[in-house]
Amino acid sequence: MKLRIKRRRFGQLMIASTLVTAIANFPQRTFAQKKLLSPTPPSSMEASSVPVKLRVNGAEHALEIDPRVTLLDALRERIGLTGTKKGCDHGQCGACTVLVDGRRINSCLTLAVMQEGAAITTIEGLAQGDKLHPMQAAFIKHDGFQCGYCTPGQICSAVGLLNEGHAKTDDEVRELMSGNICRCGAYPNIVNAIQEARSQQT
Amino acid sequence: MNDPTNKAIGKPLDRVDGRLKVTGAARYAAEFPLKNMAHAVLVQSAIAKGRITNIDTSAAQKSPGVLAVITHLNAPKLASPQSGGGDSSGGDAQVTAANAQSGESGSAGGENPFEKPVPVLQSDQINFYGQHIGVVVAETLEQARHAATLLRVTYREERPATVMAANLANAYKPQSLLIPLKPDTQRGDIQGGLKAADVQVDHTYTTPNEHHQPMEAHATTAVWDGGQLTLYDSSQNVNGVQKTVANTLRIPPENIRVIASFVGGGFGSKYPVRGHTILAAIAAQQVKRPVKLVVTREQMFTSVGFRSHSSQRIRLGAKKDGKLTAISHEIHTQTSVFEEFIEHVGVATPMLYDTQNLLVTHRGVRLNLPTPTIMRAPGESPGMFAFESAMDELAYALKLDPIELRLRNEPERDLEKGLPWSSRSLVESFRQGAKSFGWERRNPEPRSMRDGRYLIGMGTATATYPTNRMPSSAKVRLLADGSAQVYLAATDIGTGTYTMLTQIAADALGIPTERVRVEIGDTKMPRTPGSGGSWGAASYGSAVQSACVAVRAKILGMARLDPRSPLKGLSNVGMDIREGRIFSKRDSSRGETYQEILARNNLKVTEAEVESTPDEAAKKYSMHAFGAQFAQVRVDPDLGMVRVTRFLGTYGAGRILNPKTARSQMIGGIIMGIGMALHEETVVDDRYGHFVNHNLGEYHVPVHADIPAIEAFFVKENDPHVNPLGIKGVGEIGIVGVAAAVANAVYHATGKRIRDLPITPDKLL
Ligand code: FES
Ligand code: FES
What we know:
Structural class of chain A: alpha+beta
Number of strands of chain B: 29
Bound molecules: FE2/S2 (inorganic) cluster
Distance between the termini of chain A: 27 Å
Number of helices of chain B: 17
Number of domains of chain B: 3
CATH architecture of the largest domain in chain B: 2-Layer Sandwich
CATH topology of chain A: Ubiquitin-like (UB roll)
Helix content of chain B: 10-25%
Strand content of chain A: 5-15%
Radius of gyration of chain A: 21 Å
Oligomer: heterodimer
Radius of gyration of chain B: 27 Å
Strand content of chain B: 15-25%
CATH class of the largest domain in chain B: Alpha Beta
Distance between the termini of chain B: 65 Å
Largest sheet of chain B: 7 strands, mixed
Order of helices and strands of chain A: HEHEEHEEEHHHH
CATH superfamily of the largest domain in chain B: Aldehyde oxidase/xanthine dehydrogenase, molybdopterin binding domain
CATH superfamily of chain A: Beta-grasp domain
Number of helices of chain A: 7
């Protein structure tokens, strides 16, 4: 909560400072658009790929990848597990949430090469065969989604939340799920789904 | 036999696509696995106005994995909207087909504005910051993304116009708006009406630039196979994409297939075709491989439209008893320098309340920003914030309860169109909503209600949205096993299309919902309008209903004439269907199943395809959904922080096909409205014309912690005039009036009237 207030207030300060900035002159300047952080790394470095073994939903995947590949892109583009979604690629939406050793993380904020040896669980790994994970079933029952794009992230995050064991009240659930944005606005239904899954757990 | 048995319609059926969505199996546009896929990344301008004097692509070309670098210097020549197939005369890049209200049936000129060519990379001219100036294609996303940073672009920059308030002197009257509403509407004598008033209010309200930001960023996967192009596109309107891309690339639409099985939200941004879709198609053609292009979240702010800033002066006049004597609503919004989209902000004003004297005007200001576009309840959403805030101000000026003020101005008919209402449940919505919200507990005095150190406020506002229906087709196949398949091009952007069409088909055929499979989101299927204008349910639903009726009639026809059938000789009205079994109403033992009829006739399948068009009779009525929004807020008097602690919406929206998914739509609309009220604003840097807060960390959409428990319910409304199924549509009304209800509650809590959205703490301190 405190963090959120700060974030919002900081935004307002930024906006205010933009407004008071003097208006620049444009005598038909000519300038170049270039990358701020040059120089170009040697191409040999980019071309090189590294071997990495990822354990996803119990299965081992041996990949040869560019070290710049995030865990999210490794899942989606290399392994073909597209259930994990990309909403912002910047850690600001939670669509890419997966469980790493039982803890929820934003898979867009970690490189695949950093996750060797970890047990990664994605939305595809939650159901037991045909039997849905109780959280998945609760999301359907409470209509905890509309377009479904934030849903895998919400569900993985909710499972992680229950693992953490400290969300009890609706307000706590809301606070601790705030890293997962749903633009369709399914929040009240998601909270109901999580509370039902939580009550079944105990 | 004429009525559907109505077993599924009206039931809170779980989403039929729910399982696919909760297991991650639903595939969105960037998720179709294709062999040999290449990745494309957009490059965008770093100035808002001027010309590109040079683009040096040599470093990018040499970067590992790069397959192509496309800029205006080597892009293929595309059709332009002006020529429809010729030269793009200077105007240029990024002319999205945004400038039309979601293809409403009445849109003037005959030519569908959502099918006009969308040229990109056609000249060196820059019209706004973030305009596409190139696309880089490489083996991997990482390689393309890196190479895109290696382009050296040189510009000759000119001073852009980027802020509406600073350019009001250049405001102009548009030729037309995008729906059948004239830029100016006048009725009676506005000056006389204001003079006759005992009480007047006269204030100006503003809404900021706002962005849709669906969670799935726009994306296109393009695949050429000879002259055939397949596009997996995050679109609300597959037929529109097919036509627009055909017009832009000058190829026959039959050569293009567009697939959008699942769409990760849209809210209007995915209705028009965007430049990146064209670029994906061009790139795939050039590298002769499938190409995937995903717009980044930052690029989403300049690439797919937004809701324009609006400035709205409202003058109201009323007699002491609250009867309105005049309504004046003068509106300014912005458009871009290269095409026109003037939002119909005043659309609801002429019909909402009972007044003889009315003035509504729309003026536009051209800026070096991207072209605005339709966003959830375009028109009503910003317009009703201003109008319903002003109504609250008037209620206070009159010392009248705000609900009572609205009830005293309830019009008997639509005074603008001069037509009777097909149905209007505004009064009933206020009555039931107020009761359930506990409105009578509200002490109208501002700052009179407290909870400890917090100030508490309650506010209300009217919601409304027109009932639309578009021509649509559908095909239904009944199979030998008694199950049914439903096909149409339609999309489900979270609206529940799959589910409600399943319910409609199940009832129309008299079979259980589990026996129906709906397939949508593909131009291979019968043509439909896109998802927009809240017309999906009415348009798609009517088509599916008619196709089912046609299939059923075929099968019953076979049985009635067949001496081997127990149904022989029975009339349509003499029969009933339940669980796929057709029987005589008089003697239910006399009957047989679809399977038996098909088997006896050696048929694997019986099918029918229909095109269903709106009924002429509907034109005799003014058709709208209405509702009442109620907000309770808690304001921290020291910090100016506003929290919505309770929200209730009550709506009359015709027949509700699925109360579960419809309620979710209303709640979703309310939440977006709370975002509009308290958080959302895209800030323009007036020096460079770029959107400063172009990410989800700084463009604040509501998150879990911002949203309380929300209630939404529908009052019973049986409207026989709108369409045979009695559907009004629920996609947009949920957001309308929400910002006003919150602002009115904030006034009640604090005594401060905030007329400029969003209501941030600085405005309350
Ligand atoms: S995609 Fe990772 S947080 Fe948004
Ligand atoms: S369901 Fe669409 S964003 Fe959450």
